From TrEMBL, chain A:
<dbReference type="InterPro" id="IPR000914">
    <property type="entry name" value="SBP_5_dom"/>
</dbReference>
<dbReference type="Pfam" id="PF00496">
    <property type="entry name" value="SBP_bac_5"/>
</dbReference>
<dbReference type="GO" id="GO:0015833">
    <property type="term" value="P:peptide transport"/>
</dbReference>
<keyword id="KW-0732">Signal</keyword>
<keyword id="KW-0813">Transport</keyword>
<dbReference type="GO" id="GO:1904680">
    <property type="term" value="F:peptide transmembrane transporter activity"/>
</dbReference>
<protein>
    <submittedName>
        <fullName>Family 5 extracellular solute-binding protein</fullName>
    </submittedName>
</protein>
<dbReference type="InterPro" id="IPR039424">
    <property type="entry name" value="SBP_5"/>
</dbReference>
<comment type="similarity">
    <text>Belongs to the bacterial solute-binding protein 5 family.</text>
</comment>
<feature type="domain" description="Solute-binding protein family 5">
    <location>
        <begin position="273"/>
        <end position="593"/>
    </location>
</feature>
Length: 598, 278
């Protein structure tokens, strides 16, 4: 072995004999290294610097079949962003896939779509509080975290009356600066109704339960069936009040499930919180709310509805695993409302005392969550399982079940359904609204059939042909001008508290930078989009709350008071936009691409 | 409303098939068919059963395919739009009420007629091979088409550019919504099955041009019209249509290779006769 090795070594030496000997080469290299080590250090310093990258982002949105306005907004915004040097692609996802990507998996850069909003501005607490940045659901899908905003959100929650109004104003002004999402506009909802079949359409807002109660049948057979046309198939596929992919404002759910209190909303937007399943409530002290239930209420399956079911519901919404999971698994809806309740004490069959950790205004909002039958939902606290598949922690049966048939206690009970065709409900004859001594709107029809028809044009045709009585979803704005109102068919206009917005995923750069968000907000010509996309049937907004809560400083005055558009008539001023980005600390390359640290 | 639209469809297509049978098939062939129909039915039975099974499976599978597609999550809409969005916009700009009426008629009635008439025409031929090839090609179209639908999520132009495409068919004739919704899911646009089935008929019509010279021309015109109608009405992209034509070609070629390779009826014949002998 030894001789072999030395032999080979010698051979190597022999090979290099013609040039420089190995030893000399090594010595030489060392010398060169010594003299160039400074050079290499510089080389390393020069080369090992990561360049800023051209910004490339994807706008997640809905296709025209899902929400025509969303894809139109997304394309306009994409064109503007392209114009100012950002590479944009658009990803369309179906209704449930859109929500799955955005609010459950937080798998997006920015998105454009509708937000269910809220009549009370407290919905912003769950939407933006940093505590909820990791939770799936409408609680903080943006991953927005700002301690100052957290404080403001909590302050508006604790205050009441005039003080709360001031606190809300302070919150909204802070949000107008931070722009965690860009509120674009609030649609004006239009629905077609058959005046010859029913009267009383103006009493209840058709996005809420009140729209379908208290209607007065006008013909002999009107009372047999109320025929609604819905342009979204999801209620025929899933009726789970806790599911977030299949719910918007949950109108059908409100008819199936009662809550302790109900916000009775008129068509013109006037609303008041009234006792519903609760007979009455009373504040015993600053934070103790005593609620008494109406006597002898039952669920649709005949089981009695008691204070235990109510206490269960609040406990369950707080943690759908009921303590059975390593970490709590809160429901993806109603998060802020349930969080207002610290403790529940069941006094007897029909009396409870709620300890509320917020002010009284927000505390009463907590009474609007649907009451679930404990005997159906307690078993749904189990973790959802599929053999051989790893399921995300906190995924309980409760949040993924289709919940068909649903068992609630509401004015209507489930009758039958065919996926993508219809879901039919029938009157629940034992409902308390039908009692002689209860003066609340009641179900006046034997049956409510929610037929699915995905396009406004064919839904309109169904109404005009007297095959349907009401379009339960708002009509798409492009058809509103074509509506022919007659004696029999009326067009109903009502304000909305839902709004269209552009959401940023603040978890990734550069969307976590408020300066970036501010410039993007100024690239969106909201007033022009309202004309172009919504044909004028919407209101541009600078702040995402219902009209009655908009502070003077954020009132739309022909332009956005907080984030004025950099351009005119939908046409962005590219130079101004570029300057705005540069002044916000961003850089452009020679080709006009915006470059950012990603 | 669906029933009304369906009745209308049946009436119109029956009428068209009747007229075309008189024009292209002729009395002579029909007379001969009367004598030989038993034999021809027997020849076409196995592949008819296969097609029926595929169609049945298709109608069930279409309900769940989108769910699988979203699990795979291969969304091609934007790449397609990025590549060719302009063409559809240009095509839409040519819209006039008359053209819209023509293409809407073609998309619904012309298409169904195009698929049904060759069944009658080829059944009337003494040679059953064209009929068997046609049925085999239909079967292959549906099978391969469904497989592609599983993998590719793509929304059509009307979902991406609703303002330009105006969804002509559904806004001009909303009642058709009810018909097409029974058949189509909106993420299944790649490839265009409308185009592929129409092209299949056109290609086979070309191959049987000696027997049916007139039909060859009609099928060519209808085939091209169907392909254009899918784009004009904002339902498909150009790429979907091209993929549809490719699928048609592959299906026809495969059908040509496959038909006659295994003869179930001959195999059955042998069985039945040997049984009888016993």
């Amino acid at each position: 072995m030894d001789t072999q090795r030395s032999g080979s070594r010698r051979k190597v030496d022999g090979d290099s004999a013609g040039g420089i000997s190995r030893r000399a080469a090594l010595a030489g290299a060392a010398g060169v290294m010594a003299s160039t080590s400074g050079c290499v250090r510089e080389f390393r310093s020069t080369v090992n610097r990561d360049d800023l990258e051209p910004l490339s982002l994807t706008i997640t949105t809905l296709p025209a079949d899902g929400d025509r306005e969303s894809i139109l907004l997304a394309r306009e915004i994409a064109a503007t962003l392209e114009a100012v040097g950002i590479d944009v692609s658009i990803e369309m996802r179906s209704q449930e896939e859109f929500r799955r990507a955005v609010v459950i998996n937080h798998d997006f850069d920015v998105y454009v779509g509708p937000h269910p909003g809220g009549l009370d501005p407290d919905f912003l607490y769950e939407t933006l509080h940093s505590l909820y940045a990791d939770e799936p659901g409408w609680q903080n899908p943006f991953g927005f975290t700002n301690l100052l905003v957290d404080d403001l959100l909590e302050a508006q929650r604790d205050a009441d009356g005039e003080q709360r109004r001031d606190a809300v104003e302070a919150t909204l002004e802070a949000l107008a600066i931070e722009q965690p999402f860009v509120p674009i506009c609030t649609p004006l909802e239009h629905r077609l109704v058959r005046d010859d079949r029913f009267d009383g359409w103006a009493d209840g807002h058709l996005a809420t339960r009140t729209g379908y109660l208290g209607l007065e049948p006008q013909t002999d057979d009107s009372a047999d069936q109320l025929r609604a046309v819905h342009m979204d198939a999801r209620p025929s596929q899933n009726l789970n009040p806790l599911n977030v992919e299949y719910r918007d404002r949950g109108t059908v759910i409100e008819l199936l499930y009662d809550s302790l209190a109900a916000d009775l909303v008129a068509t013109d937007g006037d609303h008041s919180l009234e006792p519903w399943l609760a007979d009455d409530w009373e504040w015993l002290d600053e934070s103790t709310l005593r609620v008494s239930l109406r006597p002898d209420c039952t669920f649709h399956d005949g089981e009695a509805l008691t204070a235990d079911d109510v206490a269960f519901t609040y406990r369950f919404l707080e943690d759908t695993a009921l303590g059975g999971s390593a970490a709590p698994a809160p429901a993806p809806r109603y998060r802020g409302r349930v969080a207002a309740v610290d403790d529940i004490d069941v006094q007897d069959e029909t009396t409870l005392e709620l300890t509320v950790g917020t002010g009284q205004d927000v505390g009463e909002q907590a009474l609007t969550v649907p009451i679930l039958p404990e005997h159906h939902w307690s078993e749904r606290a189990a973790a959802a399982t599929i053999p051989g598949v790893r399921i995300a922690q906190g995924t309980t049966d409760a949040v993924v079940t289709d919940n068909l048939p649903p068992v609630g206690s509401g004015p209507f009970q489930y009758h039958d359904h065919t996926e993508r065709e219809h879901v039919t409900l029938e009157r629940f004859d034992d409902h308390f609204t039908l009692r002689a001594d209860v003066a609340l709107p009641e179900p006046t029809v034997d049956e409510l059939r929610v037929g699915i028809d995905p396009r406004s044009t064919s839904a309109m045709q169904l109404i005009e042909a007297d095959s349907a009585d009401v379009t339960s979803s708002p009509l798409e704005s492009y058809v509103i001008d074509d509506v022919d109102e007659t004696d029999a068919v009326g067009l109903l206009e009502s304000p909305s508290w839902a709004f269209y917005h552009l959401g940023f995923n603040a978890r990734s750069a550069p969307f976590g930078n408020p300066r970036f968000r501010q410039v993007v907000a100024q690239l969106i010509d909201k007033a022009w989009l309202v004309e172009d996309v919504f044909h004028g049937y919407a209101r541009p907004i600078a702040t995402p709350v219902a009209d009655e809560w908009v502070p003077d400083a954020l009132e739309w005055d022909g332009a956005d008071p907080a984030m004025p558009f950099l351009g005119s008539n939908g046409e962005v001023d590219v130079d101004a936009a570029r300057t705005a980005f540069e002044e916000a600390g961003f850089r452009y390359d020679a080709d006009g691409n915006l470059r950012v640290r990603q | 409303m669906l029933a009304q639209v369906l009745t209308q469809l049946v009436v119109v297509v029956t009428l068209l098939v009747g007229v075309s049978t008189a024009l292209f098939v002729g009395r002579d062939r029909l007379r001969k068919t009367r004598g030989a129909w038993r034999q021809r039915v027997r020849a076409a039975t196995p592949i008819t059963i296969a097609l029926a099974a595929v169609l049945l499976f298709n109608s069930v599978a279409r309900q769940i395919v989108p769910d699988f597609s979203w699990i795979i999550d291969w969304n091609l809409t934007f790449p397609i739009y990025d590549l060719e969005g302009e063409f559809i916009i240009w095509l839409q700009a040519q819209a006039t009420p008359a053209v819209t009426a023509y293409f809407s008629f073609i998309y619904i009635y012309g298409y169904v007629f195009l698929l049904v008439f060759p069944l009658v025409a080829y059944f009337a031929l003494s040679e059953t091979r064209p009929l068997r090839e046609l049925l085999t090609a239909y079967t292959l179209n549906y099978t391969i088409g469904l497989l592609l639908y599983v993998f590719v999520i793509a929304y059509g132009p009307r979902n991406m550019m609703p303002e330009l495409v105006e969804a002509l068919l559904y806004d001009t004739y909303p009642q058709y919504q009810h018909l097409t919704r029974q058949v189509n899911r909106n993420t299944n646009v790649f490839p265009s099955l409308h185009t592929s089935l129409a092209a299949t008929v056109s290609i086979l019509a070309y191959r049987t041009r000696v027997q049916y010279p007139g039909w060859n021309i009609v099928a060519a015109v209808l085939g091209i019209s169907v392909a254009i109608s899918t784009m004009y009405l904002g339902i498909h992209w150009v790429i979907d249509v091209l993929a549809g034509i490719a699928l048609a070609y592959v299906s026809v070629e495969l059908a040509h290779v496959l038909v006659g390779r295994w003869s179930i009826s001959a195999w059955l014949d042998g069985r039945v006769q040997s049984l009888r002998r016993r």
